[in-house]
Design goal:
alpha+beta; Jelly Rolls; Phage tail protein beta-alpha-beta fold; three-stranded mixed β-sheet; 9 helices; elongated
Length: about 350
């Protein structure tokens, strides 16, 4: 049986949410309860923190940030109808319930049901996903709840659970990102989902890109397993330096070796070794939102080597125009690459 006035006991947040006197005081519905709870709060430093947390939860009953989904509402309705059916099958209990529920008690129980719903909603919200996106030309650093580090490249989106500790750490990527995963022996694992493959790691650094039905995974350190969504493709275990690329349209997998220069974009630059212009065109389209038309397909095969800094798109265009001897022009929202006249 719940007490209707505070005493010297240590109340938990849950206990306060179930105490009608505290509920009335927190919602400012009964001024007579004020002195009692202010005295209890002043009795110990921990009391103020507990009361503030419980009060915040109660106030969220009025200021809901998210609406429940249709599935949640349907499940709630099924539980409600199930409870009513059980009461109809037990007339003795129903009579006792009717006798107990006076108008005053009905109001209290309605409030407590709302509080219970708020507490459940509060727990559910902690499990919802966070979403981080980057614009064209923007690179963003994201620190995950488990202290893992993600460098999110331009025109990319990363989603992850608000809380990752102590459970399977799952993320969803569209675009490209570099990961430095913090090992967590208590967690069930670390998985990054893309449109065409899932990458499972335990403690490592790797680069993952998924754009235009092409997926590329470069492992810098540690160990990862790649599971393709295509049932005809077997899983692959990658070792440091491995680069695996998957073309979903042609259902082809290729593997090669490279070094950390593959992820030099995380340092604001491109380290190019005998790279074709087609690779740079992909970067301009995927990361800067450019639409590029090339007058001669052979132009895409021209090679460039060296370092290009990514701070200024105009500098990138100036370098490739002069080094590769091509003419770059723009009409409306389209950029045209052609041979110099």
């Amino acid at each position: 049986m719940q007490r209707d006035k505070p005493d010297n006991e240590k109340y938990s947040v849950t206990a306060l949410l179930g105490d009608p006197s505290f509920v009335r005081w927190a919602l400012q519905q009964a001024p007579t309860d004020t002195a009692r709870w202010e005295k209890w709060i002043a009795a110990g430093p921990d009391n103020a923190t507990t009361a503030a947390t419980a009060k915040q939860l109660l106030l969220q009953v009025r200021f809901t940030e998210h609406l429940p989904t249709e599935e949640m509402a349907a499940q709630s309705y099924q539980r409600f109808t199930g409870t009513i059916a059980a009461l109809r099958q037990s007339p003795v209990q129903r009579r006792r319930l009717y006798a107990f529920l006076t108008w005053r008690n009905a109001a209290i129980w309605t409030g407590l049901l709302a509080i219970a719903g708020t507490a459940a909603f509060y727990t559910w919200r902690q499990q919802t996903t966070m979403k981080v996106s980057t614009a064209f030309g923007e690179t963003r650093q994201v620190v995950l709840p488990d202290s893992s580090l993600v460098m999110l490249r331009a025109n990319s989106t990363l989603q992850y659970r608000r809380s990752l500790n102590g459970q399977l750490r799952e993320l969803w990527l569209r675009g490209e990102a570099w990961f430095s995963v913090n090992p967590d022996k208590k967690a069930a694992g670390f998985v990054v989902h893309t449109e065409d493959a899932d990458v499972t790691v335990l403690g490592t650094t790797f680069d993952l890109k998924q754009r235009r039905h092409r997926t590329a995974i470069f492992l810098q350190s540690g160990k990862v397993r790649v599971d393709f969504h295509d049932p005809q493709r077997t899983s692959r275990i990658l070792s440091p330096g491995d680069l695996v690329e998957y073309d979903a349209q042609h259902q082809q997998v290729s593997a090669s070796k490279t070094d950390s220069s593959y992820s030099s974009w995380t340092q604001g630059k491109l380290t190019l070794t005998d790279a074709p212009l087609s690779d740079i065109i992909d970067i301009l389209e995927n990361n800067y939102g450019e639409k590029i038309v090339v007058s001669d397909e052979k132009i895409k095969e021209r090679k460039i080597e060296g370092i290009i800094y990514l701070e200024n798109k105009a500098d990138i265009l100036f370098i490739i125009s002069n080094v590769l001897d091509i003419q770059i022009s723009r009409r409306n929202d389209t950029m045209y690459f052609s041979n110099r006249k």
